[in-house]
Design a protein that fits this description.
Blueprint (H helix, E strand, L loop, with lengths): L2 H17 L9 H21 L2 H4 L10 E3 L6 E4 L7 H5 L4 E5 L6 H11 L6 E4 L9 H11 L22 H10 L1 E4 L6 H8 L1
Parallel strand pairs: 2-3, 2-4, 4-5
Antiparallel strand pairs: 1-3
Length: about 200
């Protein structure tokens, strides 16, 4: 995702936040849901405009801030708030994709979609700096351990609006069955991370 894409996303999220004020707790489920619909619409239009023989072979299936490594490899890497780790880790043998994660709703939904659409992916390595505001690592840890409740909220997650409304609960469970967590939250040393990957 380029800087212009990130700027556009921040503008859209800011506009939705103004048009749809949050609730008393500070959460804004309507704006998050609307933004998720806009992203799905963009992916649908892209799928219509690009020939099916191209999209059938394309992976990852959803956009995001990531770098694809070896598509046949088994380890997905989540660098949290350390995007500088994406490039070096994506080139290590065994890594299928390396990307950052900021939000505990749309970001985790994208991780789930991309992971379950590549059945080779069996492990997720979390590393890099945790966000003191959104707590994406803590939310992923809770997702792996506890799953979601009947409102699709990640059980015991602390981050802002940790609800996975734009994805089916069956996809969440498939993700939890398919992937094993390797938790190295806070680790930035590439040699130490390489040991975990190999």
């Amino acid at each position: 995702m380029g800087d212009s894409d990130k700027s556009l996303i921040h503008t859209i999220m800011g506009t939705l936040g103004k048009l749809m004020p949050g609730d008393p707790s500070g959460e804004n489920p309507r704006a998050v849901h609307m933004f998720g619909r806009l992203l799905r619409f963009r992916e649908l239009i892209t799928g219509i405009l690009i020939p099916k023989w191209v999209t059938a072979k394309s992976w990852p299936v959803t956009s995001g801030s990531y770098i694809v490594g070896d598509k046949s490899a088994t380890i997905a890497v989540c660098t949290l708030m350390s995007p500088d780790l994406m490039q070096p880790l994506s080139t290590m043998g065994g890594v299928t994709i390396a990307g950052e994660l900021v939000t505990v709703n749309l970001g985790i939904e994208k991780i789930i979609r991309n992971t379950i659409s590549n059945t080779n992916t069996r492990f997720m390595l979390i590393c890099g700096n945790e966000s003191p505001v959104f707590h994406p690592a803590q939310a992923l840890q809770c997702l792996f351990r506890k799953g979601i409740d009947d409102q699709q909220r990640i059980i015991e997650a602390e981050g802002h609006y940790p609800v996975l409304n734009n994805i089916e609960p069956s996809q969440v469970e498939r993700f939890r069955r398919q992937v094993e967590l390797i938790d190295c939250t806070g680790e930035r040393d590439q040699e130490a991370l390489q040991e975990q990957i190999y």
